[in-house]
Amino acid sequence: MIRTLDDIKRYFSNPKPDLPKSISPIVDEEGLLFNGLRIRFSGNSPIFKIDTKDFIFTLTEGLIYLMNGGDVDIADYKDLVEYSEFLYMIRKTGPETKRLKEIDLYIKAINQDDEYAEDNLIIQDIDNPITQQIDELEEEIARENSGQGITFLSDNNDELLNRLEIILAAMKEGHRSDRLYNEVNCILKRFLEKGIRDKNDYKNVIDKIIQ
Question: Would you say which domain of life the source belongs to (predicted)?
Answer without folding.
Answer: Eukaryota
